[in-house]
Amino acid sequence: MTHEPGQSLADAVSEATAILRDAGVPSPRVDAELLADHLLQVGLGRLRAMMLGDTPAPDGYAGLVAERASRVPLQHITGVAHFRYLQLAVGPGVFIPRPETESVVQLVIDHVQGLPHPRIVDLGTGSGAIAGSLAHEVPGAEVHAVEFSPFAHAWAAKNLAPLGVHLVQGDLRNALPELNGTFDVVVSNPPYIPAEAIPHEPEVALHDPPEALYGGGADGMELPTAAAASAARLLRPGGYFVMEHAEVQAAWISAMLARSGNWSSITTHLDLNGKERATSALLAEPDNGNGRIGE
Question: In angstroms, rounded to a whole number, what is the distance separating the alpha carbons of residues 90 and 88?
Fold first, then answer.
C-alpha cells in the first residue's frame, strides 16, 4: 500500500481492507478502520462519517497497515485491547485478552449477586482483564490478582492500579498462602494449550508469550490442575471456582475436579460461540470426621 498524496480516507481504508484480506487477517475491514482511528482518535462512528466526505488519509497509515498485514497483532500496533468495559494497555510480553473470556467474567458477576463485599482472586491475570473487569463491575468487591511473568505483571500493574486491585507477582501454584480459606471466588484463565498444539494464527503463535499459552505436559493440564488445587486452598467452604479451558478439555477438567473430592456442583459452561469454554464448581464443606459433610 502506498499512501498517495491527497488519497481520501475512504479510498485508503478500502485499499487497506483488500491488503489485509489478502494477508489472511480475519477481520480486515474492522482492522483497517481501527488502524485509521488509532491515528485520528475520533471513534469508529465519527470515522465512518468522515469516510463519506473527502477527508484525507492520515500520515503513517500505510505503515501501520503493512505491519498488520505481516500479522503483528492489532493490539500490539495500537497498544490497546478492549475487554468488556475496559480499555487495557497491552504489548509484547503479555497475552492479549480474548472476547470469549468475557463470558467467564459474567459467570463470576452472576454468582456474586447479593454478596455485599465479595473477595475474589484471579490466578494468572495476564493483562489484568478478568480482575480489572470484576473490580470495575462488582461494587464493593475486594479483588486480588496473581501473575508470574514479570513482563505481564508490568502490564497488569499499569491496568489494575487505577481499579484498586491487589496485584502480586507470584506463581499460581503457591501464591497468597496467608489468605488461604478467605476467598468467595477464585477465577482463572491459566495457560492450557498442549505442548504439541501450535496455534494456527500467526498473531498467537508468534506474538503471544509461550508461558501464557502452554499449560505444561503433553496434555497442557499441569497449570489448570495446579489452579484447581490452589482454588481449593484459597476458597472458603462453599466458595466458587471457575476456570477457562479449551473446549476439548471440558470433560477432562470435570473429571479431574470430581476425582479430587474437593468439589460439588461441577458445571460446564458454553461461550457465545456454543463451545465448552469454562468449568465451575463449589468447594465442598469439610467432612467433620463422622462421614457427614458440613455438620
Answer: 6
The span from the CA of 80 to the CA of 83, in Å, is 10
- Where the chain has pLDDT below 50, the residues are 3, 203, 205, 207-209, 212-215, 289-295
Could you say which architecture CATH assigns to the domain 81-283? 3-Layer(aba) Sandwich (3.40)
Does the annotation mark 83 as catalytic?
Answer: no
Per the annotation, the verdict on 162 as an active-site residue is: no
Candidates 50, 56, 46, 57; CA nearest to 16 is: 57
- The 10s digit of each residue's pLDDT in 68-102 is 998 888 888 888 999 999 999 998 878 889 888 99
Phi, psi angles (nearest 5°) of residue 288: -85, 10
81 pairs with which residues across the strands? 88
User: Which one is catalytic: 28, 83, 95, 183?
Assistant: 95
**Given this model, what pLDDT does residue 193 score?**
58
| Active-site entry in 28, 58, 97, 190 | 190
Catalytic member of 58, 148, 189, 262? 189
Q: For the whole model, what pTM was predicted?
A: 0.81
The whole-number pLDDT of residue 292 equals 37
**95 in active site:** yes
Residue 293 is predicted with a pLDDT of 39
Give residues with Cβ within 8 angstroms of 63, minimum separation 6: none
